[in-house]
Amino acid sequence: MAYTAKQIADYLQGEVIGSQDVSVSSFSKIEEGKPGTISFLANPKYTSFIYTTKADIVLVNEDFVAEKPISATLIKVKNAYSALASLMEMVKNSAPQKSGTDSMSFVSDSAVVGENVYIGAFAYIGENAGVGENSKIYPQVYVGDNVKIGKNTTIYPGVRIYHDCVIGDNCIIHSGSVIGADGFGYSKEDNIYHKIPQLGNVLIEDDVEIGANTTIDRSVIDSTIIRRGVKLDNLIQIAHNCEIGENTAMAAQVGIAGSTKIGENCVLGGQVGIGGHITIGKNSQIGAQAGIISNTKEDSELMGSPAFPVKNFFKSSIIIPKLPDMYRQLNTLEREIAELKKKLEPID
């Protein structure tokens, strides 16, 4: 389906600079722009491409000022990247939506399924489970007994949701994720590990997205909680009894040990490791591969393992390559001082 620059600008509440009638039917990167596509400029590193791109329309920020002629029609918006996301969401929602229950799926007689729900082939919906209206359960999804899934939620193929877990509205869970597996809980006696039953569940609030092959363990008692608006990348491990604060985002391969609380609006880089039974203050930013072993304050910026303030980390990183030379210089100074001491020793 094609859209004109005017239609796009009206939808985004933007301003057209150029032809209002030019139309596009697809998206492209600005450096690889093709006729019939719309692109965007949000990162200043790509500014040079706006003068050579073949895309017919480019979204730009309101403060963009061209330094030379541009062949593409521009649409000025408050935030080009956010506008692109909004536009792509509109296109996605205009595509035909799956609905209905495949004959090769299993839905328990005691399950409650809302209107306009899609349940794909080989999906399993357990006893007393609930699926809210407009949700999509793709093929080979397992939804255990007493699981509750909210409205407008999408569960992609191969997801496993264990019994008693709760998923909110407008959530997305990608393929291979496991929600509600047993937490890693054992008591050790005479060098033998005895399993501690994990009797709680996982509670995922509204507007959460969970990446592929991410695992969230059920709690020993009560709930492991993922608060509203959290965004989790692929291959993340969240252990039992953790709580992740609202609007926190984590990149791939983050690992969080049990009973840890992450504050709201935090950002965790890839491969961050966080110890158990600690608290991360809200608005914290933790750099990739950092290791956190104690509580952190609000608004912390941390890197390193064990992690320490990011400014000190960068200063240390500059010094580390110089350590061999500094070590040699120190040895030289020690020898010179020893020689001076000998020379200054009193003569009997």
What does the main sheet amount to? Answer: 12 strands, mixed
Total number of beta strands: 40
> What is the CA-CA span between the terminal residues?
102 Å
Strand order of the largest sheet: 8-11-14-17-20-25-28-31-34-37-39-40
CATH superfamily of the largest domain: Hexapeptide repeat proteins
Helix content: 10-25%
CATH topology of the largest domain: UDP N-Acetylglucosamine Acyltransferase, domain 1
| Rg on CA atoms, Å | 28 Å
CATH architecture heading of the largest domain: 3 Solenoid
**Low-confidence residue ranges:** none
How many separate structural domains? Answer: 2
Supply the CATH class of the largest domain.
Mainly Beta
Tell me the β content: 25-35%
**Anisotropy-based shape:** flat
Question: Topology of this structure?
Answer:
Blueprint: E1 3-4, H1 5-12, E2 15-17, E3 23-24, E4 26-27, E5 37-41, E6 57-61, E7 73-77, H2 80-94, E8 100-101, E9 106-107, E10 112-113, E11 118-119, E12 124-125, E13 130-131, E14 136-137, E15 142-143, E16 148-149, E17 154-155, E18 160-161, E19 166-167, E20 172-173, E21 178-181, E22 186-189, E23 192-195, E24 201-204, E25 209-210, E26 215-217, E27 223-226, E28 231-232, E29 237-238, E30 243-244, E31 249-250, E32 255-256, E33 261-262, E34 267-268, E35 273-274, E36 279-280, E37 285-286, E38 291-292, E39 301-303, E40 308-309, H3 310-319, H4 323-344
Parallel strand pairs: 4-5, 5-6, 6-7, 8-11, 9-12, 10-13, 11-14, 12-15, 13-16, 14-17, 15-18, 16-19, 17-20, 18-21, 19-24, 20-25, 21-26, 24-27, 25-28, 26-29, 27-30, 28-31, 29-32, 30-33, 31-34, 32-35, 33-36, 34-37, 35-38, 37-39
Antiparallel strand pairs: 1-3, 2-7, 22-23, 39-40
